[in-house]
Amino acid sequence: xxxxxxxxxxxxxxxxxxxxxxxxxxxxxxxxxxxxxxxxxxxxxxxxxxxxxxxxxxxxxxxxxxxxxxxxxxxxxxxxxxxxxxxxxxxxxxxxxxxxxxxxxxxxxxxxxxxxxxxxxxxxxxxxxxxxxxxxxxxxxxxxxxxxxxxxxxxxxxxxxxxxxxxxxxxxxxxxxxxxxxxxxxxxxxxxxxxxxxxxxxxxxxxxxxxxxxxxxxxxxxxxxxxxxxxxxxxxxxxxxxxxxxxxxxxxxxxxxxxxxxxxxxxxxxxxxxxxxxxxxxxxxxxxxxxxxxxxxxxxxxxxxxxxxxxxxxxxxxxxxxxxxxxxxxxxxxxxx
Length: 337
Ligand code: NAD
Fold this sequence. Notes:
The protein contains eleven helices and eleven strands.
């Protein structure tokens, strides 16, 4: 039997220091919409804390940032308990990480898990929408995954979010998840306006979107050119839920929900690699900012069999491109000046 050593004091101290840095960054990012460190720096902290916990598993306590989704929620909004937990995504930063994920799920499932649905990882704000008998009744931020913030009046102001679902076979209860984002062009204009008014500009489109949605006054939200794209379902009751992620998207589109035009279904790992390579070169083609690609097992039955860890589904992976944010963000702000 392999016994792992208890963490020495230096490792314990570094772990505590990283946990504190990450919690502080989470609060600034998720609650204040105003981060003070770059995503790359944040990701490096997360990687370091994960490595420490792999080496010394006694550091992996349930309150570690590696075991949780997102951050705290603000008291400015009414808390909402999600119908089903909203999750985060595990990351791959290299082709080896991606191949290791693929090998792991093949082994766990014991057969071929393909095909896969590839799509863009939109750098926006994660939101869940609830439709009862086709009517939008609630919208909430992800929060810590179990409890989010009620932002229904704000989401109702977003033009491509339907208040009523259309078409045949409307489910009696539907909970969809997606990203709310500010198109890059809208972000530029908003920052120009803020600078003209002598106000602080937003650091990037993601924070601008989050700051615009999380307004006490929905009239402010209404003036921001926000959009949403849905990329998942939490609950589907009635009206025959489809059996693959791609079929789900096509049904959601028929129901009037905004679904990406850029997703592709590929057969195998090679197909995922091609999609990643394509968008590495075409990163700025979409109207929104992306920070990577998400690959998902397409068959829902296989997704179910693979299940989730405490914070993320095993059947999906976010491949993150190396950051280019430092230069583009500085440029954006200079353009605003
Ligand atoms: P994540 O952003 O790495 O991935 C999970 C999220 O991706 C999901 O909740 C989902 O809403 C979103 N997503 C976008 N497109 C998607 C798609 N097509 N399919 C499925 N999901 C999609 O993880 P996270 O837990 O939301 O946040 C962690 C990340 O946030 C960090 O890696 C970092 O980049 C950033 N962050 C930065 C700071 C900071 O201070 N700079 C602080 C906290 C978090």
